[in-house]
Amino acid sequence: MSGLDKRVSTYEQALEGLGDGMTVLSGGFGLCGIPENLIAEIRRRQVRDLTVVSNNCGIDGFGLGVLLEDRQIRKMIASYVGENALFERQLLNGELEVELTPQGTLAERLRAGGAGIPAFYTATGYGTPVAEGKEVRDFNGKHYILERALIGDFAIVKGWKADYFGNVIYRHTAQNFNPLVAMAGRITVVEVEEIVAPGELEPSQIHTPGIYVNRLILGHFEKRIEKRTLRA
């Protein structure tokens, strides 16, 4: 069993091998389901020139936004970045390279990377700046652009519950991009709220099979609310 046990005891162990210039895939949507402690460990390690792939870049002062504060991100591949003023400033000042990708295309690029598919054609973005510099083909009278798969040196993921073998369940909307990110990392690290013994998870409820997971750590989470709305 020890060879299948994915657990590590420290965040330093969880991200062992992470270095300058690597590509990091990060799960989450807004602040929902983000691997906040793994992001904090990346900040602590002060690795630089990272390419980060995520739906968005957190907010000022939390999530991936803290890596912007320390100028650790060289390039961001994302779908939505409108909640981060520092992101905007760095982009406009030429300090941050940005590749904006339609949300569904971003999801499929990650899924393709995990499935071993190097590229695929999609109609999304044809005739817009998204298609600039990309191969275009006609299928059945409709134009499609070629999008390349995404693979990361590291994938950082937030789960709800997992067993020792790295089988992971996500909770409700915190599932979001996490399963796709988990598939596409050369080294996938998952932090969860609870770790149980093998056999305690209902197999039909598992979202990410342990075959995709290299390291697993138990974490404690702040779970900030991005925009708190209360009834008047």
UniProtKB/TrEMBL annotation:
* Keyword terms: Transferase
Q: In which pathway does it act?
A: Aromatic compound metabolism; beta-ketoadipate pathway; acetyl-CoA and succinyl-CoA from 3-oxoadipate: step 1/2
Q: What is its EC number?
A: 2.8.3.6
Endpoints of the signal sequence: none
Instruction: List the Gene Ontology MF annotations in alphabetical order.
Output: 3-oxoadipate CoA-transferase activity
Q: Highest taxon of the source?
A: Bacteria
Any Pfam family = CoA_trans
The broad enzyme category this protein falls into is transferase
InterPro entries named in the record:
3-oxoacid_CoA-transf_A, CoA_trans_fam_I, NagB/RpiA_transferase-like
A biological process term (GO) from this entry: beta-ketoadipate pathway
Catalytic activity entry: 3-oxoadipate + succinyl-CoA = 3-oxoadipyl-CoA + succinate
Q: NCBIfam families in the record, alphabetically?
A: pcaI_scoA_fam (TIGR02429)
Protein name (record): 3-oxoadipate CoA-transferase
Record the organism.
Answer: Azomonas macrocytogenes (Azotobacter macrocytogenes)
